Amino acid sequence: MRRSVKILIPALAIVSxxxxxxxxxxxxxxxxxxxxxxxxxxxxxxxxxxxxxxxGGYIYLPTxxxxxxLRVQHSHDRQFHRCxxxxxxxxxxQGSFRKGDTRCFFAPHTxxxxxx
Length: 116
Hints:
Residues 1-21 form the signal peptide. By secondary structure, this protein is an alpha+beta fold.
């Protein structure tokens, strides 16, 4: 019985930390589309090695997607974060979005960007 308690406590600490870290996405919207960033599981930290800053914005290297500075928001933990669309859809005002496209993008503080 004691052994399972020892295993359970660290597991709860990890889940609690992840939930608290995830809370700051709640209520954020993309500055360009106006869409909510996260509904619970769409956002996660991404390695700095997957991001390259370019004139006017960032490139998310795994997909080659360009995220203009107007869409970049300030990260709360000095890491890059990316929220993605969970399904494809068409919005008559904003256009077409594919599953996996960037829904919101957060970067460590820089001098340039919409929400810095």
